[in-house]
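Entry 14: structure prediction run for Parvulin-like PPIase. Input pasted below.
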Amino acid sequence: MITALRHFLVDSWLGRVIAFVVFLSFVVLGGTFFGMGGGMPGLGGDTVVQIGSRKITPLEFQKAIQRQVAYAIQQNGGATEFLKTPEGRQEIGHAALRNLILVHEGELAGERNGLNPGDETIRKVVFAMPDFQDPSGRFEPKKMEELLKSNNLSHQTLTEETRRMLYGSATMFAFGKSVQPPAQELDWLENYVGHGQVVDMVRLPFSLGEVSAQPTDEQLKRYYRNHLWQFRQPEYRHARIVVMTAGSVAKTLQISDEDLQASYKMKMQDPTEAARYNSPELRSVEVLAVTDEATAERIATAWQKGQSWAELQKQYPKAIPATLSDARVTDLPDPALGKAAFDTQEGHVSAPVRTAAGWSVVHVLSVKPAKHASFESLKDSIREDLTNERATALLKDRQRAFEEAVAGSVTLDKIPADIGAFPLEGSLDAHGNLPGGEPAPLPGDGTLRQALIGQVFSQKKDEPPHVVTEPDGSAFAVLVDDITPGKQEAYESVQQAVKDAWLADARKHATEQRATALYQQAKKEGLRQALAGQKEEAMLQKDEHFSRLQLRHDVPALILRAALEQKQGQTAMLQEGDGYWLVNVTGNYEESPTLIQAIRQQQAVRMAGAYRNDLQETLGMSYTRVAPLRHFNATLFNDVNERVLSMISGRLGQQ
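Run finished. Output tokens:
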């Protein structure tokens, strides 16, 4: 969203020019003009798609992908899981290309309508950019040169992007600026998040069930016959495996100190990268919010004289209290409140501050200074990032050497280590477990692990090994040299295991009966009454609060959903994990009006931005009817997208 742009991209003209490409739709720059890195050799000289007379080149598409990744990481709070799936990678590529198309369509629309910003207009716009001015407001050429150099920009690029910004301002930016979200949507959102549930609940583990008598031999034999699969020894296969992954190739690489220093400098210049390692100043605060200035003045005076927060709450019961621990300035719901919290010294109380919802007074409990990661502290992680990045690029190049080595080694014992392949061997079952029951130490992620197991159990004994290549470039070869067939264990040899399984089932059944009886009683009179005087009463969790604003992670998702969605007075019985849960909603409560008002205001801004972006994108797509797309090269699109995302994944340690 436009409202999510960082300070650099909102308040600086240079930032606006750099971000122009993504202002037309949903993309927001997370770093410099080059997003997460510079150019990539070998991707030039062709056309991904043509719009009118304009061509989108592989290099231009590459930069758009990098910007899209930076935006997606920012929107996902730093998470990069979307890079791990083919669907996520395709979505990144399509979004990046769509936004490039809209950029060119908007520019063509401006030209068709007679808009032609001349050199003098562009010169005036550039000279008026505050980023290029000295404190007195005069254009400073030296300052411009420094900023362009630090952002890898040339004069020509600045001129072209300024011209595009002017075209965009004239053809698209103003469209939809006055749009406002419907009040009904905001009312629904406020009602949805503004109320929480008060819940009584109890968890009854299966192990609590009481078994009155021990099983007879006949019962155990019958249980054994009915559950033969539980007492069967699986087939084990002994295999020799050689694997080559980006991680194993990385271990063969050496990174020079010069490269490490250069990478550190690049990370610190890129806001998205720097945010992974540096942290802003954090503050823990107490806040009291009231509706009028006079009350706020009295609270501030008493607080400054040493009266405690708890005492003030008793004295002013209508004041709304709030606490924040290790909060950033953006975590506070109101800009004025954030400024007051970060302008006040540690241990001091602020003067009353006017907010959107009234008046507030802030007590700063503690301050954690901003942290800046030094080169020495990041040296090892940078080395790992660079080796992963380079290993990803080298992985395909080394596949030929790997295939030749496998072809020349029938027993897989002559694979050279310097190509980044490593051997392992052992026995495992079809679930990937060792004979002792623990998981086999197979390399790679879950996908590679499953591929290895599948190959071991599909390949014939002593069949010559061959290279299997995975979509991410990882490769392996397998030699199965021994097979131990599975067999049914005799009852006599597993009698104790049968008894343990029988008792576990009996305890679970007893717990289910007990939970059902309590559930039936709770439906009539509530869970608290149903457990009164019972042995399970000590396990009851009373008056637990559940809110959509602060989802709890100490209960399973199924229980959380029941706590939030049931009506007052309802009780649910649920099986989750190794126990039964009884969940009874006893009441509800309202969230802080100040917090809800702040959330409403934030969502109003975000929704207005979303509607505006939708309208602007619709306008941009309508231009395609005048200048339709031609010559889309799907093969080149996929090649550029995969190569760029593989490079980025390597940097982020995703391979």
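Notes: Confidence is low (pLDDT under 50) at residues 1-44. Will compare against the previous run tomorrow.
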